[in-house]
């Protein structure tokens, strides 16, 4: 009896041990396959442009749609995870990504590529990535922070390997056969999803979706015990209430209106995103245009990935020091500022040795931006509303990621000068960094003046930037629907 009870308890709590580490390995591979994949798109830029006789602006819509859908599909993914579980959504994402890239190999126009590689493959990558990160919250409690940090190394590995593999396959087989092979590679997301089996509770029921919201069951019971056919006005009111609850859960507009810190940070990051992706899309074509060999040009993106492998964990550890408690927003702004200023190196010279130096500095700044992006959001927003705040944050982020490269491509088409790519990127990044740093500084001074004058506030924590403790959670607490991820 005692032996059977101990075995049941061990089976009921698989967190932080055993199969959880296999799930972590699958999450590392997933992040490399999904978030790392857009890094290789620049390798195909020139070939796609010649194949479809498209302008820079038209060609840049392809990676823009892919990245925008990858980041903006988070709320839809959360709904599917709650309904079907993480395992199903990861495998669905892998299937969509594979189908999208296989279909892309048969495209006859740039518009078809927008649909297949941009929307379908991007949505599949979103499902696999988001659900793969979410499942870590179920398998890890004590080591959750470590698990997420280790999983994010998959992004850096993807940044390093995808461009090298893409250039090799492009030289050997052409872009159509390469996209066909990519469809097979991305199908491995389904294998990773199969590893992520649902966590079993003591009762035997699978824990594969977040805990039910309080009142939802009661509401359902109340409706079932009521009249068999409610009044049409009551039905309409109930639908409106449910719709509002869904919006409140996944798109927290109330937080945006009331929390000044979240408001400033969201505006600053979305403005930054217009210029954030430009170097990744246009660096390879810029280097090729200035006489750099294609294989060496593809190596530039891999250098950025290698720097990320080492710099991202170090910056993450540095930002966790108590010296930066309450000051992480300024460290983030400094990283964004360095990101923007580094673009001037490309403008000065396009020699391969100079571009290597540029990639090292850019990779370091990008590591700081990626390591701190969601951590600062956790500092600004209460953790019980982090999931909904992240939903609105990623959708606004994806909109600006979508419009940045095509608008810059249009400018390049008009001027015939790739240097405007880096001018644009610097402008948006530097202005966003200064806006966030000075705005938070002014907000802190305003809050200090209010405290000094003892002006009463109805809820001061909602209006000021402060640290929100997130590291200690009881093992009995259910993991959040969306956990701390590094998506850049």
From TrEMBL:
Residues 219-236 have a biased composition (Polar residues). Residues 20-449 form the Major facilitator superfamily (MFS) profile domain. The keyword Transmembrane applies. InterPro entries: MFS, MFS_dom, MFS_trans_sf, Proton-linked_MCT. Keywords: Membrane, Transmembrane, Transmembrane helix. It is a multi-pass membrane protein. Residues 206-236, 458-481 are annotated as: Disordered. It is found in: Membrane. GO terms for cellular component: basolateral plasma membrane. One of its GO terms (molecular function) is monocarboxylic acid transmembrane transporter activity. It comes from the Eukaryota. The chain crosses the membrane at residues 21-45, 61-81, 88-106, 112-139, 177-196, 264-285, 297-317, 329-349, 355-377, 389-408, 420-443. Its main location: membrane. Pfam families: MFS_1 (PF07690). This is MOT6 protein.
